[in-house]
Amino acid sequence: MVDVIVVGAGHAGVEAALACARLGKKTILFTLDENMIASMPCNPSIGGPAKGVVVREIDALGGQMGRVADLTALQFKMLNTTKGPGVQSLRVQSDKLAYSIMMKEILLLEENLELRVALVKGIVVENEIVRGVVLENDETVESTIVILTTGTYLDSKVMVSSDVKSEGPDGQRTTAELTFSLQKAGLETFRLKTGTPARIYTDSINFSVTEEQKGTDEFYAFSYQTKPEERIQNQISCFLTYTNQKTHEIIQENLQLSSMYSGVVKGRGPRYCPSIEDKIVRFADKERHQIFLEPESLELDTTYVQGLSSSLPYDVQEKMIHSLKGLEQARIKKYAYAIEYDAINPLQLKPSLENKKIENLFFAGQINGTSGYEEAAAQGLIAGINACNKLAHKEPLILRRDEAYIGVMIDDLVTKGTEEPYRLLTSRAEYRLLLRHDNADLRLTEYGREVGLVSNQQYEHYLQKKEGMENLFLTLQNTLFKANEPLKDYLKEKGYMELNESINGIQLVKRPNVHIMDLQPFMNCSINSDIAHCVEIEIKYVGYIEKAKKEAQKLQTMEKLILPKHLDYDEVLHLSLEGRQKLKEIRPVTLGQAARISGVNPADIAVLAVHLEQQHRK
What we know:
By secondary structure, the chain is α+β, with helices and mostly antiparallel strands. It folds into 3 domains: 1-44 and 99-400, FAD/NAD(P)-binding domain, CATH 3.50.50.60; 456-545, Arc Repressor Mutant, subunit A (Orthogonal Bundle), CATH 1.10.10; 560-617, GidA associated domain, C-terminal subdomain (DNA polymerase, domain 1), CATH 1.10.150.570. Helices cover 36% and strands 18% of the residues. Strands 1, 2, 6, 7, 8, 9 and 20 form a 7-stranded mixed β-sheet that branches. A 6-stranded antiparallel β-sheet has the order 14-15-16-17-13-18, with no helix packed on it. Strands 11-10-19-12 form a 4-stranded antiparallel β-sheet. Strand 1 (2-7), helix 1 and strand 2 form a beta-alpha-beta unit. The radius of gyration is 26 Å and the shape is globular. The two termini are 45 Å apart. The model has no long low-confidence stretch (mean pLDDT 94).
């Protein structure tokens, strides 16, 4: 008998298992292949818009992904630097082999954690409480908590044109029995589809006719523990090419041979990461589409063809790839394919990621309908934390939408559900100016410390940063800048007239194009660039930030109004028919969550608020 069983050693499973083990719970992590731990069956990268901030949040809470991503990255690139801080995000090109190997080593060294290679074919449920799992050899392994993080391996089918194979990514095994076990326990499942592009031999690419995409020279990292000297010193470039008219003609002529357009695919595919066939159909007016050529590992001779996901036949894929500039002589090592798999309806989950129907059964990752390594890892971490909180009879950790992108994602899933692979986007966050790359530690480290996952060293670094920011604010507030010669030259260079009177640093930094680090020579003090960056954002965007905080406070007020667990919505008078139906189905935890349910209108929320007030008076 163990405390926690985690099924699946992908990005969600790794974070869940590590969290549970580090919090002192005896944990077993089941995997089909220990050489596929934290594998990257699709793009060899971590981060990107919104996702990069999620990785920072994982690190701030005490998770593992950010640290390993930093140490095994081939390239670091800060995206959207010409835009506002609310949409800037870090992305790294990963060495997929090094990442997987390092994660495996970390798991094997972790106390309280046992790694077992076995196929789990079912869950054991008694009186609507999970009791353990059943293995392929009919062995039953008992546990108090079970966390399912099966990714795309539930009854998965790999498809190339009309050729369909029952297997998981990279030819791994799959199981339909676990799906049947979940359905037997009363859970609703549905089919989803995703895909991956071809991998080609790197030495067969003519990079000279493509556009080089270098990394960012300035130091950036996902983990607050990473030091500049630990990162790769000579970053590896990616390259950019484009589809063209010939590419589009090849696809259009063979569209009926695609798994998606021939009727083979039954599940819904990702809206924001479509196959190349889908792009050509949906965006018929576009003359070309970007194709990024990305290295997979220093130990591999392959390049990932980002943007060319497909399920067309092999011969058509070859023609399509050879039509691209720079890939005319490309040799294909691994062809593109589509994959279809089972997921559960996330509306069946509590915000803690525990199942509503089966107690002590948690779900995390792509089984919940999400896409992406980062979304999976974040869910795994939260599921692991809340599994331990459940064992310790503590309240679950539920992050608000104004506190973390992780909170946005989980709230979207359990409140709105999804009918296609869910992808986290900056546009999904109402308070994205509060959820920035630079302040993830300020938002979440205290939660990680309270849970028990943030080390003394990480917490001390966080406290030093807070103190440094406070001191810099005071220094700027108390420093008067006068119209001396060096400052006049600097302001003139930035397009400003001479100062008529002395002003303090706060007022000066509020001006566009005036930066704290540029003012350092006039301040007679040493300034940390990271701290200066954070303070500068707070100063320049103070009006927008304060407005967002006020809006978030309204949300917090509604989130504090807890709805009774066994509230009978049939007894709440004057609810709309659809609103009543949705409230009964989802059973929101708070009035705020109820307000975000599709189909529940403002009048329903007003009725609920009155009902709660009446119940409180009784």
